[in-house]
Amino acid sequence: MAQQKLRKQETLAMRKRLIGQSCRLFYSDDPVKIVRARGQYLFDENNQRYLDCISNVHHVGHCHPKITEAAAAQMDLLNTNSRFLHDNIVLYADRLAASLPEKLCVFYFVNSGSEANDLALRLAQQFTQHQDVIVVDHAYHGHLMSLIDISPYKFRKLAGQKEWVHVAPLPDTYRGIYRETHPNPGQAYADTVKDLIEDVHKKGRKICAFFAESLPSVGGQIILPQGYSAKVAEYVHSAGGVYVADEVQTGFGRVGSHFWAFQLQGEDFCPDIVTLGKPMGNGHPLACVATTKEIADAFTANGVEYFNTFGGNPVSCAIGLAVLDVIKEEDLRGNAMTVGAHLKDLLTKLQTRHQMIGDVRGVGLFVGLELVKDREQRTPATECAALVVKRLKEEDRIFVSTDGPWESVLKFKPPLCFSMEDAELVAQCIDRILTAAATENINLPNNTCINCKREQK
Amino acid sequence: MAQQKLRKQETLAMRKRLIGQSCRLFYSDDPVKIVRARGQYLFDENNQRYLDCISNVHHVGHCHPKITEAAAAQMDLLNTNSRFLHDNIVLYADRLAASLPEKLCVFYFVNSGSEANDLALRLAQQFTQHQDVIVVDHAYHGHLMSLIDISPYKFRKLAGQKEWVHVAPLPDTYRGIYRETHPNPGQAYADTVKDLIEDVHKKGRKICAFFAESLPSVGGQIILPQGYSAKVAEYVHSAGGVYVADEVQTGFGRVGSHFWAFQLQGEDFCPDIVTLGKPMGNGHPLACVATTKEIADAFTANGVEYFNTFGGNPVSCAIGLAVLDVIKEEDLRGNAMTVGAHLKDLLTKLQTRHQMIGDVRGVGLFVGLELVKDREQRTPATECAALVVKRLKEEDRIFVSTDGPWESVLKFKPPLCFSMEDAELVAQCIDRILTAAATENINLPNNTCINCKREQK
């Protein structure tokens, strides 16, 4: 197959003409054309290699031959819908069940994390017969209309907040209302949810769900403080609601020590609904909702069929099974733990030399490096973060991007085959760029949160 | 690859345990396990062959080798997201643009018809800054929360009708309020939309969109009367709204004479937004929204990115391109026209012998056969239709299913490689079964519409 059919300028011109401009390009000033990929490396039309620190979807590595093989073999055999019996869907569900707490034993297969979160919301509403949803600040749960409603990251820029949606503070112990010096930030942040529930009840409304990523991503690669989820679940259950853990970005061993990021919150915590997505099919459109028998039964009891045309088809499930196999065979969870720890360690060492590094946080290969203008005020260094991203691309051919309300957090969510050497290269390059930036004395005005227009002082 | 890993009873038991029961099986009393497929044929675990009259998704035939080849080659090369430049997405959009009227020139790629319809609704609301939507009765536009709201087929069984949703009569000239004897049913049905718009305006509300399948499917394989869409578009445009044509079930040459079903309404009609889905990837999760530059620009102007993780990836687009190639190379549109006409002709001949056949309608390989208890009252023969479906499966190994508010319409939406012999076999088998049914004197009570609980007299 020809790797390139059009010259880059022609591709770009056609893209501008034919694809909605709301679909943005990375590095929009100088976008990159990628024609092939392998493992953690992407190659442009001139065969220049780029190290990929951001493709969390391509979980076991780009174009893994075992995934391609499984897909092609099943495509050649059968790809019907799930109204016929097939082994793949049940074998896959069985494997997922084995990775989850026992009570999460019923599955619905869909095509995207967004479809999964939309269905999770329907399940929660049907089960509780309540409407109100609590989300954490800056959260993003998907591009569908129902999910924009529960995503402060989006609704603040669009239609605004619905009366049935309530926003809890982001449990960010670096920048949030309770910080690393607080004796028990998990309890303190959980109590903000408790207070919200009380406010909701005072309005005569009822709690349907608490909906949160197990590690808030767009929020800035946040690690939830210990004890938070169990306490929130307790409060939400008391109010007759359910806890929905959005694992679309964080599942399938990325955190290394556990297969699911919600498990970082301890064995006494189990969500009522978990949504899975991005890495699940290594790029193939595949996602899922896992829930309890009680919630699934309540959904069945409405008497209405749920049919998802492509969801759970034999090809999607064959790919899903192959992804699970590769994670295990190549011990990618182990690799995420070792390499992630090394990367965090290297970045933490950089922090001793660079005043601009305000915080380094992460678990496994989910790592954030927060840049600040001054360590005391923790003023977000948005422009500096953008500069690092630009220079890493141009000078080092490394793809990194930013997250967080002020786009001041460099995020690392690479394919899990990321190596020790990759981690070392990234740290060296950031070191060099931050050294240069300090020399150039980058000094910029105060920032405004791009999500909620609040100013950071 | 082993075609079967579990015995059928074991698959069924695991399915009951692990998959949400809202995800229903075909022939739930005696479900079928399918292990392989080719063209228009499906094979069960005992290598029994079934003729497939219902898999409209597997448009160019099950497991077409050219589709598998294109998918595998691209999966081996690259499968990133659309934030990088790539030739496939622009070449594919360009090919789709060439098949559509010139003004439909901007594309958004997504993973399912539901995602496409949700985005269409967002586009329409953003462009018009209005909220209210008119849909036709019994319509189904997808499984997402936003789409249940605009699908009478679903919302009547679930949350009920929202104040911003308005239901126009289904333009069904066999069973609707204006029938085949009306001098101008297209105008008459369009005027019902005009009346609705006036009602909406009287309430101080504003029309965002008229949203309809180009051939209402769940509604009972309905062929819109000539002139309907152009008139509706005129009324909707006057009210400041847009016309959304849902081509998820009907696009890509199924109707034979045209590539898109909305084109059946004549050259003076062009929708403002068209959604594509099911057949687009021949089973691969791929869908799309096509719209005008003005609508796309209004969406861009909100300043918010639209990112769909898997939408428009190089593998999905390679598959989409291969599907277009096969449709052309194998002249599947021509085949849909010829074989569809033959099937309709054969079924129409059966009508002369079987009083139970109330109506035969269709274009290309989108055909409906409506069964009635008596031709004058047109009482739906729901149980008889179910009997035909059951016997076709058990006695003839033919998969057909029913649609329409009373599930009294046998629907034929086979892969486009369906042959003249297949059409003849189906007609013969239906002939035999209806003859037997008449002898057995199937006489059943009045029916209730499964969607809206109205009784048919």
From TrEMBL, chains A, B:
Q: Which domain of life is it from?
A: Eukaryota
One Pfam family this sequence matches: Aminotran_3
Instruction: List cofactor names only.
Output: pyridoxal 5'-phosphate
The UniProt keyword set, sorted, is: Lyase, Pyridoxal phosphate
Q: Does the keyword Lyase apply?
A: yes
Q: Which Gene3D superfamilies match?
A: Aspartate Aminotransferase, domain 1, Type I PLP-dependent aspartate aminotransferase-like (Major domain)
* InterPro entries documented for this protein: Aminotrans_3, Aminotrans_3_PPA_site, PyrdxlP-dep_Trfase, PyrdxlP-dep_Trfase_major, PyrdxlP-dep_Trfase_small
Q: Which GO terms describe its molecular function?
A: lyase activity; pyridoxal phosphate binding; transaminase activity
- GO cellular component annotations of the record: mitochondrion
Question: Family, per the entry?
Answer: Belongs to the class-III pyridoxal-phosphate-dependent aminotransferase family.
State the protein's name: 5-phosphohydroxy-L-lysine phospho-lyase-like
Species: Echeneis naucrates (Live sharksucker)
Name of the gene: phykpl
